[in-house]
Every structure is written in structure tokens, then in C-alpha cells.
Design a protein that fits this description.
Elements lengths: L2 H16 L4 H9 L5 H8 L6 E3 L22 E8 L2 E8 L10 H17 L3 E5 L10 H17 L5 E5 L2 E3 L4 H5 L2 E5 L4 E3 L3 H8 L5 H5 L1 H8 L4 E3 L2 H14 L27 H4 L10 H8 L5 E4 L7 E8 L2 E8 L10 H16 L4 E7 L6 H6 L1 H14 L4 E10 H6 L9 E4 L4 E3 L3 H8 L1 H9 L3 H15 L3 H6 L5 E2 L5 H11 L18
Helix pairs in contact: 4-5, 13-15, 17-19, 18-19
Amino acid sequence: MSYSEKLKELIAREQKADAGGGVERLAKQRLAGKLTARQRLELLLDPGSFVELDKFVVHRCLDFEMQNQKFLGDGVVTGYGTVSGRMVCVFSQDFSVFGGSLSGAHASKICKIMDMALKVGAPMIGLNDSGGARIQEGVESLGGYAEIFWRNTQASGVIPQISVILGPCAGGAVYSPAITDFIFMVENSSYMFVTGPDVIKTVTHEDVTKEALGGADTHSEKSGVCHFVDSSELGCLQNVRKLVGFLPSNNLDDPPMRGRLGEDDPADRLCNEISKILPDHSSKPYDMRKIIENVMDHGEYFEVHSHYAQNIVVGFARLGGGTVGVIGNQPAYLAGCLDIAASLKAARFVRFCDSFLIPLVTFVDVPGFLPGTAQEYGGIIKHGAKLLYAYAEATVPKIALITRKAYGGAYDVMSSKHIRSDFNFAYPGAEIAVMGPEGAINILYRKEIAQAEKSGKLNEERARLVEHYRNTFANPYKAAELGYIDQIIRPEETRRVLINSLKSLVGKREQGPSRKHGNIPL
């Protein structure tokens, strides 16, 4: 065979591999409103940057006449490319080939690119669109999943791992995304569940749709499994690119900087809007996002888990050009109380940031933990302790600002000085105490309240006692006297103070006691 003939054979094989499951199956994919595996990679990566590996791999199964059904690539496209010029490793499952099901060969391709990502210190992005394990291969397929899970675990905290769900993700397939750092889903086309609707109906007699059981809304609002939801695959992949822009490539790299420090958004810019956002009365709600956006570079705040546990907000922003992880109690929802869901959401985010050297900036306005039997029976003690543990364990720069309230144990949990926050600030109107004035006076002034009730002056006396307690205890000055608050600042100075604090912490080094690992209250 001449060289030109060999070249023609190579081109023919490449074209066959590019065709996936064939023209008809690819057309069916598009008809369902979904992009093909290769189209998704084109949108995710910088133009012309993708380098494909293992393009000619085929499965090894000989049972059920599978030897007569082989497709080059075996249902997954793997390789590497760049996002905004920075290298990432990727795989994209091809639903047109055996429904994207995972075989031993399919798994080996994914494992190979995961090994490369870990070796070179590049983020790993998986585009999932699979019907699950390839039944014809039995335990080999199950073993393939376990090999992927093991690598997810080894890579955790070493490189960022992002899962994008662009179709069905069922059975064992859901556990790889669950181990990764962030999960993206698309409305009306992404599904995740351990057991599907048909099995559930057979076993428990529950009648539930795919969407209600494991759709994007379910996992973004109820279960908290999903971090980001988009209405289209295009929007989803654009947001993946945006997320990658905030993250370091690995746990040894610093987070990316945008320009020089404060280059085009001055570090000393005044935050005059904050005083207008904060209500005069401590019980009135306001949107913590507005304060965060007013402080951060260009008002940019990329929120994570925006539909789940809305009593706390978490996300990425840039402050003085560098990435920061932002956590804030949300007074506009459940008064900003901490509950089970909020504790889990924030703890996971804090631990991610600590793994990847991303400084933590916490905006505190918390009246306490949400009371009630549902919370106690659900394990708020254990779950609340996860957030406490995460903050206490974190060694990255930690800055906290009390914008209004910080009561009870929730004060301790939200990056207080006592669990080694580096800088703690408060606005002049901040209230820091064991509990709110209304509850405190019932304990401290029982006799006075009883006498006022007898004399018919209960309302007047309660108002006087509440005001006295607030002026005496519920203010930032007692905490400042004890050194628990480093500085009481004017709201308009917030940006300058936070950026200067971050600059001073650039060289922070903190070493904990020698141990294999701690035992977080799971």
C-alpha cells in the first residue's frame, strides 16, 4: 500500500470516527434539541485548540453479537484544549453511539485523560450524556465506573473537576459527577437519578416523571445536587467557561489575576450605595447580593447554587483583580438564618476555596440557627457543625464583615475571630450578642416585665428594655473592646478596607497539627 493510500485510509477512519453513531443518529440528537458531542467541545473550548486522543478506540465485547457493532471512539470524545488560553482536559460522551453507554474501553479513555489532567495539573471537565452502564459488558462496565470514581477522589482538591449534565445520567453514572466540584444542568434535557421512574413505580408504586424525579429544577432547588442551571446548552457551556476563568488550574497555582491590582476599578473606590441598601431597622430585609456587588470589581459576582438554600449566598468575584470566594447570609430569605441546607451549601463552598488557595470574604448578617423540630430531627447539630468545621479548618486568607446582626452560635460559625479569621470588621450599626434583644429581655428582665404587665404598661416597658439592651449589648463596641472585631468601619470604606486586608495576607502561612486527615461530621 502506497503512502497516499495509507493517508486516504487515515482520513477515511477519521471521518468515520467524527460521524459517531452515523448520520441518522446524529440527526435524531439534533432533532431532540441537543448538540452533538463534538459541537459541545467546539463551544466549550477556544477555537481550534482541541486535540483529540484515542479517536480509534473500539470496545472489546464479543457477547450478544457486539463484535459486529463497533464504532470508532466507542461513544466518547476525549482530549485537551484551552479555555481563555488556559489548558483543560475534557471528555464528551456521544449519545449517538450505544446511547453514550459506558463500556470498558469507553471508561479507559476517560480514565486516561483524567490521569493526564492530574499529571499536568489541568482542570478536568466532563460533558455527560449517557444511558449508564453498557449492559452487554456486565461487570467490566461496572469496574470502569469504579475506576473513574477512584480517580475523581484522587483528583479532589488537586485539580478543579466540573461535570456538565447534557442528557440522562442514571445509576452508577451519577456518582462521578457527585464527587466533582461543580455540576451544571440544562432545563428540560438534563436528568440525574440513581433509579429511574420505571423502577421506582415497580418497587414503591410511586408515579413520577423524569423531570420531577431528577430534572434540573429538582436538583438545583430541592436536592442541591446541581450548582448551575441554564435554559440552553450554549448558555450552559458559556457559564462553564466563565467559572473556569475564576479558578486556578490546580492546588499549587494561584487563582488567576485580571490585570494589575485595582487597574481599572480603583481599590479606593467608595461604596456609597451600601448605606442606602442597609435598612434603618434591624428586622427589615434587604438583598445581601447588592452589597456584595457594590464592593466587588465592576460589580461582578458569579453566584453558585443560586436556587438552593437561598438564606445564604455563595459565589466567586474579583476583588482588587484577584479571585475571592464570597459567602453571605441573605436577610431577604428566612431572615438569613442558618439551617441544614445553608450549612451544607456554604461548607462545601468554603472547603473548595480552601483547597484551591482562594481567599474567603464573608458578609455576616445572621440572627441564629433556624429553630424547629424539622431542623432538629434532620440533624442541624451535625450539619451546622460542618460549616463550623470548614471555616475552622480553612487556612486561606479569611476576612469577615458583620453588616448588621451576628447572634448566638451562628456568630461563632460565620468566620469569627475565635475560629481564626484573619480580619474581622463590623459596621457601626452591627449587633453582636448571645441573642436578639426581644428574646434576651424575656430572660434578663423577667421581674420588670411581670410588674409592667400587672400595671398595664407592658408594651412601653418592653420597648424601653429592648432599646436599653440594644444600646448596652447589641453593638460592635463590646466585641471591639475585647479584640474580637479588628476595626469598626464606615460602609463606604468597605472596598478599600477589604482590598488592603487581602494585600496584607498575600504571604499568609498556616500549618495545622500533623495528622492523616480530620474527621468532619458527615
